[in-house]
Design a protein that fits this description.
Blueprint (H helix, E strand, L loop, with lengths): L1 E2 L9 E5 L2 H15 L4 E6 L16 H8 L3 H8 L2 E3 L1 E5 L7 E5 L12 H11 L10 H8 L13 E3 L2 H14 L3 E4 L2 E7 L4 E6 L4 E3 L2 E4 L6 H6 L4 E3 L8 E8 L8 E6 L2 E7 L3 E8 L6 H9 L11 E4 L3 E3 L3 E2 L2 E3 L5 E2 L7 H14 L8 H27 L7 H8 L4 H13 L12 H10 L16 H20 L4 H8 L1 H7 L1
Parallel strand pairs: 1-9, 2-3, 2-12, 3-8, 5-15, 12-21
Antiparallel strand pairs: 4-7, 5-6, 9-10, 10-11, 13-19, 14-17, 14-18, 15-16, 16-17, 19-22, 20-21
Helix pairs in contact: 1-6, 1-9, 4-14, 5-14, 15-16
Length: 503
């Protein structure tokens, strides 16, 4: 149905279509920051399930909680959470080899050269150990230790129950004036100019709005099925298109990192919560059947299964326009990059905060909408490059899947980064992109890529001075981490209510 009624111009009514993590993160931020200025309604149905398997986050989530005024302890108690200091990549470079991408900083930089140049010369001379030995968070991952203090860098994230997180944020949102409407959307009404006018509910209710936020998941009910925003398909760079997810009981103390375990046609995640473990297998249907995937996943888990394996189909890529007409896509409706580096919740957060910064109080202007789209697409492309890096820079050629990844064409922007690092050892973070130099270094080196040369500024130090420099950093970080409690012990102290409930 199309209506000829026109909008007044000023945005006063915001309608969020869909709940889950994306919907309730959006509602929480809008309710907290604009709840007194806007009429905010979220529409969801208890009959429609959410994906809800992405339980690992990255440190940027602290910023979102700061905006909402939420304490980390409260979030953790509500979401069965544990701490996360990085991701351990197993079998990615080669079978039976692993490395950790930790969230911390590497060593100590020189004004002319990054720490990797000092480390590289130390490697060539035979007295530098693995790159992670010069990062506190990496050392803590291996020692399974963790602590927080008032003045520390918050170089940690959370493993959390995404369903519980959405419920927690729903309660928060409703306290800040967000209205929830239960039910399924039957149809979407549009103005004659193409903008969305209202959502027709199966109950017969009509939910009118000025700005609509699409949190309907892969379907993209508003942004794609109604407004046809278009889609950039990235499956030629990221061939995985299926996932299976299952929850298991815990059989050991939760570790402070996510495990990413490469298999013959994809990879498996293992995410420890306080009372259970989230498991899943991401795979390519071109190289692995659904039955083979199920067998692989169930054959590589620990503990008793608490759920039946849940099948998820996806197509990696991004909407051509994240904001089209008077609709903004947030979460899976805006696109999907597989959860290898736990970026899904981050992308929700970034879309929400970006929209708040560019909010069209007096009406939607094309320049503002274009800026939102440009920033969104740039962020998606930067993350795409980082994810493709894991697949392409590998020594594995033992299966058709890995041979395909090793030999496939990659984005020009990624090829430039790899060439620059290989030829000169240089790594740069461009503007506001998510992953910094330490992240790129740990993954490139972990996957087996080493520069041909180090920066000549390193030669300012004698070999003895360089050896002492590297050893002092390693010794200092190791001593600091040794003073931290075990991760499990810290959780018992930090979340006593949750831990007591488990006893």
């Amino acid at each position: 149905m199309t209506t000829t009624a026109q909008q007044s111009g000023r945005v006063q009514r915001v309608v969020i279509a869909g709940g889950g993590t994306a919907g309730w993160m959006t509602a929480a931020a809008f309710g907290k920051l604009l709840g007194k200025q806007l009429d905010i309604t979220l529409v969801e149905s208890d009959q429609i399930g959410t994906i809800g398997v992405g339980e690992a986050t990255i440190p940027t989530l602290h910023l979102f909680h700061d905006v909402l005024g939420l304490t980390e302890a409260d979030v953790m108690k509500a979401t069965n959470a544990t701490f996360k200091l990085g991701i351990k990549f197993e079998n990615w470079r080669q079978k039976d080899q692993d490395y950790i991408h930790s969230f911390g900083y590497l060593g100590q930089d020189h004004w002319a050269a990054g720490f990797q140049h000092f480390w590289l010369k130390g490697q060539q001379l035979g007295f530098a150990s693995q790159i992670g030995d010069y990062c506190k968070e990496h050392i803590a991952c291996e020692a399974q230790r963790f602590a927080v203090s008032p003045n520390q860098d918050r170089n940690h994230a959370l493993h959390l129950d995404a369903t519980a997180y959405a419920k927690f944020l729903r309660e928060f949102s409703e306290k800040h004036g967000v209205k929830r409407v239960e039910g399924k959307i039957r149809a979407v009404d549009c103005f004659s100019d193409g903008d969305i006018a209202a959502l027709q509910m199966e109950s017969g209710d009509v939910i009118e709005g000025d700005l609509f936020i699409d949190c309907t998941g892969f379907r993209g009910l508003l942004i794609e099925e109604t407004l046809h925003a278009g889609y950039h398909d990235w499956s030629h760079w990221l061939p995985c298109d299926r996932a299976l997810a299952v929850q298991t009981s815990s059989v050991e103390s939760p570790i402070p990192y996510t495990r990413s375990i490469a298999h013959g046609a994809g990879w498996q995640w293992r995410i420890p919560l306080q009372t259970r473990v989230g498991n899943g297998l991401v795979y390519s249907s071109r190289f692995c059947s659904d039955d083979e995937a199920r067998s692989t996943l169930l054959g590589n888990i620990e503990g008793e299964t608490q759920t039946e394996p849940r099948a998820i189909k996806f197509r990696t890529g991004t909407r051509r326009k994240h904001w089209h007409r008077n609709c903004v896509a947030v979460g899976l409706s805006s696109g999907f990059i597989e959860p290898l580096e736990s970026t899904s919740i981050h992308l929700i957060q970034r879309s929400v905060l970006r929209l708040l910064q560019l909010f069209p109080y007096d009406g939607i202007e094309s320049a503002v909408r274009d800026e939102f789209n440009e920033q969104s697409l740039m962020e998606m492309h930067n993350i795409l490059d980082f994810i493709v890096l894991h697949y392409h820079v590998t020594e594995r050629d033992d299966t058709p899947f890995w041979r395909h990844c090793k030999n496939m064409q990659i984005p020009d922007s990624l090829q430039h980064r790899l060439d620059m690092f290989l030829q000169s050892g240089r790594v740069y973070k461009h503007g506001a992109e998510l992953f910094g130099e330490a992240s790129w270094l740990q993954v490139m080196i972990g996957q087996g890529l080493l520069p041909q040369h180090y920066h000549p500024a390193v030669d300012v130090m004698s070999n003895d001075e360089l050896q002492r420099f590297l050893e002092n950093i390693k010794t200092s970080f190791t001593k600091q981490v040794a003073a931290w409690p075990k991760h499990e012990e810290f959780l018992q102290h930090y979340c006593p209510a949750k831990r007591a409930a488990m006893a």
